Amino acid sequence: MPSQSLDDVDQPERVAGAGGVALAADWFGPADGAPVVLLHGGGQTRHAWGATARMLAERGYRVVALDLRGHGDSGWAADLGYSLTAFRDDLVEVLVRFARPAVVIGASLGGIAALLAAGEAAADRVRVLVLVDITPAPAREGASHIQAFMSANPEGFATLDEAADAVAAYLPHRPRPRNPAGLMKNLRLRDGRLHWHWDPRFMEVTARDRFADVDRLVKAAVAVTAPTLLVRGEESDIVGPEELARFRALMPDAQVITVPGARHMVAGDQNTEFGQALLDYLQAAAPPA
Questions:
Q1: Which of 146, 170, 172, 140 is nearest to 240 (CA)?
Q2: Are strands 22-28 and 35-39 parallel, antiparallel or unpaired?
Q3: How many domains does the chain have?
Q4: Which of 110, 156, 245, 271 lies at 20 to 30 Å from 278 by C-alpha?
Q5: What is the pLDDT averaged over residues 236-263?
Q6: How many angstroms separate the CA atoms of 287 and 257, rounded?
Q7: Are 15 and 93 in contact (CB under 8 A)?
Q8: Please, which residues have CB within 8 angstroms of residue 118's CB and are 6 or more apart in sequence?
Q9: 139: enclosing H helix or E strand
Q10: CA angle 41, 44, 50 (to 5 degrees)
Q11: Quick one: 260 and 216 in the same domain?
């Protein structure tokens, strides 16, 4: 695994996922550091973890931030290959590259892939499991809100400001950036218009599987043997009090941290608080040495 500068993340490495799908990967930190895998949520890209990846690398971890299949700079899957199993198997392909088990940190869809890997397919490859605002049975209303945003604007946007307006309407609790140029990490120009940089077809499969496979996800959660941390947003519409109570019943040994002022996108809403909570937990559960 070649070493990469913390500032050199515009040209990702390609690693092979399940079925040969090429996954975009940015590497951070010392080559001999304890491995950490970062998996973003549906509709996001590896860039969502930029601050977290740098923070972990500075502490001595060897970090890889991946674009999920069908997202960012990763390949799009043929024949609608976006089942939860496919996302899980991509992660397993990455985990076996490491000489030792890895800390796996997954938000939303990335957390589901991590949960399935730890509970079904690669328990011996997961040192610690960190779920970021996701449980086996999230709140349906909150999930529907996310899906509605992701399904909107199928024709794309005429300008970057139009895209920024859509994000501002979806995330009204965040200040609208004066310069929306950073959104270009999540957009691509096609046919003269800007489109979100994910395969819109993945929603056809993943959203369906997400609620059809709750029993499977519950079984996976019960089977997890790795130390587990759930980080949830205090104002999350995905992991509310009811979902949290169910999670505690399923995984009574797991630790739970609630980040004040954060919603579903915990790291983006309160990055400093999220990062400190994560570091405090990993210092005890999986130190980098």
A1: 140
A2: unpaired
A3: 2
A4: 245
A5: 93
A6: 18
A7: yes
A8: 104, 126, 129, 220, 224, 225, 226, 228
A9: none
A10: 95
A11: yes
